[in-house]
Amino acid sequence: xxxxxxxxxxxxxxxxxxxxxxxxxxxxxxxxxxxxxxxxxxxxxxxxxxxxxxxxxxxxxxxxxxxxxxxxxxxxxxxxxxxxxxxxxxxxxxxxxxxxxxxxxxxxxxxxxxxxxxxxx
Length: 121
What we know:
The protein is of the alpha+beta class. The protein has a single domain, classed as Alpha-Beta Plaits. Helices cover 24% and strands 26% of the residues. The protein has two helices and four strands, in the order βαββαβ. The chain has helices at residues 20-30, 66-83; strands spanning 2-10, 44-51, 54-61, 90-96. It has a four-stranded antiparallel beta sheet, covered by helices on one side. A hairpin with a 2-residue loop joins β2 (44-51) and β3 (54-61). The two termini are 33 Å apart.
């Protein structure tokens, strides 16, 4: 299973609909029309409105490799953005995977201990 993150931003002038980001996050969480891990949809999805004009999504994709996971996530997100009313003006501006080298070192007692806080035996 691969983790893919996405950032969606609303383009254009600020409109009277101030709940657009919350509604898009809700739409992403509830979108299941033909989407399943077998069909290329996410196994799990978390979406949050970051501001009035931005939505962050985390998709857990069951794919054979990281490239297929990103492509399946892209296909899923574009399908949601083109599927219904209320998604106009939203654009996918970032899509990618976290860099495993940036994760913090494991800390703690035991043979797999890394780091210095708390001190390893």
